[in-house]
Amino acid sequence: MSRRPGNPSRRLVDGGGLPFVGTIHSKTRSSPFLTIGLVLGAMLLVGFCYHQSGGSRNDLEAVSRVEGSTSCTVEVQRAIPILKKAYGDSMHKVLHVGPDTCSVVSKLLKEEDTEAWGVEPYDLDDADASCKSLVRKGIVRAADIKFPLPYRAKSFSLVIVSDALDYLSPRYLNRTLPELARVSIDGVVIFAGYPGRQKAKDSELPKFGRPAKLRSSSWWIRYFVQTSLDENEAVVKKFDQAATKRSYRPACQVFHLKSYS
Ligand SMILES: *[C@@H]1O[C@H](CO)[C@@H](O)[C@H](O)[C@H]1NC(C)=O
């Protein structure tokens, strides 16, 4: 199987979005990797079942660690119940921005009283049939997030972004983050990777090109202050309370910003 050249960051995220499929695909000839992939897959499945049935704290953390080394887009899906507690009615009309957005949009559309749209920052070449259907309906679209988003101001009650801002330099962040705030009414939720957590992927980096710029929480907070974006303290509190109650520990950094008033 040969990898087509393309956006290097997309490749990195691709591997992250579908960790086990990727492992099995690219390593079919060497069975140890296949075994590891299958074992991890089984762990994830077991963890997921526990999660569904409200499993114990340790199980949740195990899943969180597995997923944490892969993708924050997966983390968004896990966080939906907590986000609903924190944002209530603001989860009514959601835009997700990030790789593999179809997976998040499909999940959100299954929630009651939730409309969802998605922006895929890279390409949709590998989209499956259900994703292609979302694209045909205009629910998901590909757009370069370094440029203004193709939506009117205040089009969505909430904007959630994952695995996308990590790849932007401050120069582009300065344009993109205000854009996310512009199209939202009640806020922007940022899921960003933790520096150091993606260590497991280092061996694969030569294949993917340059890594994401994972920034510390103090970097982000300084950046928000610099660019006059306010964190929504009330929501932060609600989110933390809901997370504690459900023993949910995000594997990514989660920030809650206010939209422009
Ligand atoms: C981004 O915007 C902030 C605030 O306006 C500014 O201080 C900073 O220099 C900008 N950074 C870049 C790289 O343009």
Structure description:
- It comes from Cucumis sativus.
- This is Methyltransferase type 11 domain-containing protein.
- Keywords: Membrane, Transmembrane, Transmembrane helix.
- The radius of gyration is 18 Å and the shape is globular.
- With 261 residues, the chain is an alpha/beta fold.
- The chain contains 11 helices and 6 strands.
- The structure holds 2-acetamido-2-deoxy-beta-D-glucopyranose.
What's this, in brief?
Helix content is 48%, strand content 11%. The protein is α/β, with parallel strands linked by helices and 261 residues long. It has one domain: Rossmann fold (3-Layer(aba) Sandwich), CATH 3.40.50.150.
Task: Write the topology of this structure.
Layout lengths: L7 H10 L1 H8 L4 H22 L4 H12 L3 H16 L5 E5 L3 H9 L5 E6 L8 H8 L3 E3 L15 E5 L7 H13 L5 E5 L12 H4 L8 H10 L6 H13 L7 E5 L4
Parallel strand pairs: 1-2, 1-4, 2-3, 4-5
Antiparallel strand pairs: 5-6
Helix pairs in contact: 1-2, 2-3, 3-4, 5-6, 5-11
The structure holds 2-acetamido-2-deoxy-beta-D-glucopyranose.
The site of 2-acetamido-2-deoxy-beta-D-glucopyranose (NAG) has 5 residues, from helix 8.
InterPro entries: CGR2/3 (IPR044689), SAM-dependent_MTases_sf (IPR029063)
Protein name: Methyltransferase type 11 domain-containing protein
GO biological process, one term: pectin metabolic process
